[in-house]
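ARCHIVE CARD
Drawer: 12
Card no.: 0347
Subject: one protein chain, sequence and derived structure
Cross-reference: see card 0346
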Amino acid sequence: MPFHELPSREAVLGAQCRGHRAMSDLLLLGLIVGLTLLLLLTLLAFAGYSGLLSGVVVSAGSPPIRNVTVAYKFHVGPYSETGRLFTESCSVSPKLRSIAVYYDNPHMVPPEKCRCAVGSILSEGEESPSSELIQLYQKFGFKVFSFPAPSHVVTATFPYTSTLSIWLATRRVHPALDAYIKGRKLCAHPRLEIYQQDQIYFMCPLARQGDFYVPEVKETERKSRGPAEATDAQMDGTGADTMSDTSSVSLEVGPGSRETSAATLSPGVSSRGWDDGDTRSEHSYSESGASGSSFEELDLEGEGPLGEPRLSPEAEPLGAAKWPREPSTPEKGEE
């Protein structure tokens, strides 16, 4: 090669610099891709740890807890706003188990009208809560109420290992409960969540449902019925027929009783005309099951967690479903 065609020193150094830059760019790109994959794997692992891959098994049998005394605060509004109530109850006594009772179906009831009670379990079984503990919760505005241990419930569990577990449980367990109750046409209400160590227990009583309705639920029903009753009285005064198919509701058993609830609605029901002892809204969880089915109409098989007979998952459905349409996208995201 002629001398004048040899590359200069500057050209060689420039080519080497460009090669180093290209290699550096490739290394940087590889590092970014590696970190992104690592982040995705970490998020997937965390989601799996929080219960993303856990199976949801719904069954009917004995309750996961016995009779309990709870300190609670009543809430009317979106279920997504109940987080502060959990925080309040836990801040009073962090060692106690948290509990929530949801009375309305968020797929059917406007968010601002959904009712629930959130608080802590003060005692379980024969044990009574201390007066000091009761006074402590009452000091922070909580009320005290007792729930029984029904003979049979629809129940499910979900891992409780992180805050994400609550979000996942909301979107996985509640649809499974809805499908189970609707498929077997059961009368199971209200819906309870018990947070115990590393598990969330979901429970829908099949008996003594009325004992799980706190006094505020009945009060809200009275207030909501006021305008409707006034309208009905006006219609009576003008001689209008108040027993039409579109304004009458007949109840066999209301949740205000202390026995198994098996409410039956007449065709074309509306929210008017509820019996005074009834504590349910037009689309409460009590209307998600059958009009007359209960655990007494199902076959019993095996034993539940507390040694009680467990209901057979293959039990023949009875009665007629109360919800006329499929639930929409879950509203509770929140919970």
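Annotation on reverse: Residues 9-49 form the longest helix (41 residues). The CA atoms of residues 107 and 330 lie 6 Å apart.
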